[in-house]
Amino acid sequence: MKPTPGVTMLPSDNPLTTPRATNGRAPDVFRPGAWTPMRCWSDDDEVDFAIVGTGAGGGALACKLAEYGFSVVAFDAGPYWRPLEDFVSDEREQSKLYWTDERIVDGDNPLRPGSNNCGKSVGGSTVHFAMVSLRFRPEWFKARTTLGYGADWPLDWREMWTYYREVEETLTISGPVTYPWGPKRPRYPYRPHELNAAALVLAEGAEALGIPWSATPLATLSAPRGLSPPCVYRGMCVIGCSTNAKQSVLLTWLPRALKAGAEIRDLAMVGRIEHDGRGLATGVRYHREGRWRFQRARNVVVAGYAIETPRLLLNSASAKFPDGLANSSGLVGKNLMVQANQAVWGLMEREIRAYKGPPSLALTEHWNYKDDGKDFFGGYAYMSQGPLPVAWSSVLAGQRGLWGQGLLDAMQDYNHQVGLKIVGECMAQERNRVTLADETDRYGLKIPRVTYSYCDNDRRLIAHSLAFMRVALEAAGARDIWDETDDTCHLNGTARMGDDPRTSVVDADCRAWDMRNLWVCDGSVFPTVGGVNPSLTIQAIACRTADRIKTLARRGEL
Amino acid sequence: MRERYPGYDVLAKRDTPSWNDQTRRAIDARMAIPLAARRFFSDDEWPTVQAICGRIVPQPRDRARPAPVAAMIDAKLAADDRDGYRHASMPPQREAWRRGVRAIDAEAQARLGARFHALAPDAQDEVLKAAQRGEARSDAWGDMPPAEFFRARLLHDVLGAYYAHPSAWSEIGFGGPASPRGYVRMNFDRRDPWEAAEALPGREADARRDNASVR
């Protein structure tokens, strides 16, 4: 290609094909082309922890364990980005952040995993998440006892409250001084962001209906912090932040992890966990730089999220564990829970230009905290929206069947479009599950089959939310309102925690009942899913798990 | 139909703080894709693919820089860049496209007696609508459901290509690349000087003037 005027900086290497974290150094995520020292271990070193996945669960845990003095090697199948030099303002190019390895989907309501919920990057899907950082409603941790559905968590909400705070401070969450729902909490570390027009529409609708709303607590900065600048309202958060305002795992926990002596291996796909004759894990078999290798470890942590985690446990089946690891309950892969992600959309006379600013600057958790007047269990939040053009055209085509001139005409209203979208709690069902398909991927590993169907309760929740949001959008002055009835977001629940080995995969410490040096630390451990985005809770659980590991080690119980 | 953003060209911002170097590289490369570039589709398939794209996103004939939609889909298939999921009823994307293109041609033959690209636009739409409704007369579809191919494969890939092109961004008044500068004015009816100005009925000249100074 001939040189192009105005383009000077070229990337030093290709992080999609050649690992960057090697030979005692890792990329400095804050400086183009720069490096930071990294302690390296050999495959023959028996490290304290081999962690599979560096997202919300694995990344936070790697940091905390390294800071507690454990030797840690964390693996990620994805590349190690420097956002300032690698991230483009373009949806198509940035699909490089997503887990696009094939998954077979089926069931009555087949999922579309990939762009909106599965990351393939060091830092996991927090590199492209929408940064919405919410605490669970306390009662959800005892949903069965207090609210009559689902299962109780083996965790106490008051303990979680202290870990939520730790994560909010680590991510320097920007949020309101007082949050309208739930028990009292300290103010958020940084001030809330200015609302865009899409968020103001949510506020107008909520006020017209007499329910509270709030600026969304977000993991993007409203003032400088360290080497990160405040958010410039570029609006492309879900395709990766190119200014480093977003407080992803890549920018927060992982630099700390490196400083504390953890090693991170990018482009390292773990295909199998090995064990010895006693049934204890001995390390992980992983593919990097064109060959299979084996890292010895005293403990293995699986943190690959709710599809890859059960896939790895199932793909690690052996003569001793023919149904996969940690699976004496038969629950590995089962109880996959999505969150409902339905929306209402309409047109405003006024210009909205929802592409500006983080996509969900305002929300209401009204229906997470209000229990009467519902004909369903669980709750939902709803948030303002700011879809980018490719994503928006795919909603119009997928939901309304538009194409040709009809689609081009509808797209002309892009800057007047406004929407409200839920994050809705779906029930755990054993028939919703991750299994192994017969097809294999480029590593020769069996690919996952993801089966999903709503239950009646899910459908009632969705119907309630669509009817309510329609009234709210009308009250704010929107016209031509229509429902987006088919979308889902976050994934959880395929290796649930509990206090009974017969009905759960891991205990409260995320430790597998069947293999005491195997741990699961990601959204897979959720017994219920709640009506808020899960990343803050996943990170809080990781912080708690690290503290428990420290305590157990001190007592000689690891 | 009136032009909503007369004179707005998102490319006018290429050399401003709204575009960083890596964005210039990526978009320059996309703009340089020839309309007829192809590595995946065969000589026989190509006119059908181009005609299908022309009906899903009918671009203005006089457009200075038409989006090379068919070529972008071809590039996606040549690289086998996938989406992360595939319905159990569907073959992998390359096979789905080959079979779907063959089947749409076969439907055109069966229904209207000519290959798809040789039909008039209305007749082409008729064939596409039948696929969208899941109606198959030809057995060229095999076990692939036409409606699933149309929605999840064809529309998905055509729109994913078209709305990734600056000409489409300009058409809908999208701000386009925005790093590092981002945006300042967030409220209703407020635009930054580097955003598209919308033409109010009867005041197209004002919008054209504002759009001429977008940078």
From TrEMBL, chain A:
Superkingdom of the organism of origin: Bacteria
Keyword Oxidoreductase: yes
Source organism of this protein record: Roseiarcus fermentans
Residue ranges annotated for the Glucose-methanol-choline oxidoreductase N-terminal domain, each copy included: 118-339
Name recorded for this polypeptide: Choline dehydrogenase-like flavoprotein
GO molecular function: flavin adenine dinucleotide binding; oxidoreductase activity, acting on CH-OH group of donors
Family: Belongs to the GMC oxidoreductase family.
UniProt keyword list: FAD, Flavoprotein, Oxidoreductase
Region (Disordered) residue spans: 1-27
Domain spans labelled Glucose-methanol-choline oxidoreductase C-terminal: 429-542
Transmembrane portions of the chain: none
The keyword Oxidoreductase is assigned to this record: yes
From TrEMBL, chain B:
Origin superkingdom: Bacteria
InterPro entries per UniProt: Gluconate_2DH_su3
Pfam families: Gluconate_2-dh3
Comp. bias regions, Basic and acidic residues: 201-215
Segments of this protein annotated with the region Disordered: 196-215
Protein name per the record: Gluconate 2-dehydrogenase subunit 3-like protein
Species the sequence originates in: Roseiarcus fermentans
Lineage of the species this protein comes from: Bacteria, Pseudomonadati, Pseudomonadota, Alphaproteobacteria, Hyphomicrobiales
